[in-house]
Fold this sequence. Notes:
CATH topology: Rossmann fold
Structural class: alpha/beta
Radius of gyration: 18 Å
Number of helices: 8
Helix content: 25-40%
Number of domains: 1
Distance between the termini: 21 Å
Largest sheet: 5 strands, parallel
Strand content: 15-25%
CATH superfamily: NAD(P)-binding Rossmann-like Domain
Order of helices and strands: EHHEHHEHEEEEEHEEHEHE
CATH class: Alpha Beta
Number of strands: 12
Shape: globular
Amino acid sequence: MDLRILLTGGSGRLGREIVKLNPNVIAPSHNKLDITDRHKVQEILNIVQPEAVIHLAAYTNVAQAERDRDQCWKVNVEGTRNLVECSTDNTYFAYISSACVFRGDKGNYTENDIPSPENFYGLTKLIGEIVVQQSRHKRWLIARTNFVERAPWKYPKAFCDRFGTYLYADEVAERLLELVRKGTTGLIHVCGSERISMYELAKRLKPDVQPWTLEEYYRENPDAARLTRDMTLKTVRTDIS
């Protein structure tokens, strides 16, 4: 029998893929569930009474986060705290985090590596992790990942010196739902096995994309947030397939 799952962020790239794979998940719109509004959070949880929460909703614009720190904090930290504190103790809680919790100076980060964010967005995602870990919930999952939409690259350029172990959103959705179905707990990196640049990734679906370096980006945008250069992840978890 399917779990009764409440999904936040259902209109995002990953959320849409989860809904495709499991149309039975309950994914309220932002108007119905603003995670920064504690009253609305409690109201939805009382109505749905979920057995599991998959928390995807987040402020994800890394550049804008540096200029709008209050809102980024409100969504990524306070919104997460509202969901954690308003859900019942026995609710399975899955929090989707980011490779940006790491500095990005070495790559191949495992679950045992110490986070050290390069930017404010990464900091808020890390603090969101801590909120989950320190909650009263005994069954929680933190899944760090980096993914892109399975669609042609939207931009004319892509970084040739920014790396990741990327998955497509549909692949992450499938893995995440399987982890939730099995009741997997703890911290896990959900990642691909290949280290590639954003440029290499973009060329797969947009052959005419042009290479760009971080140095060029910083020269053109001197006030820009520092981006995580190497987002490559690997997992040392041996208890999952």
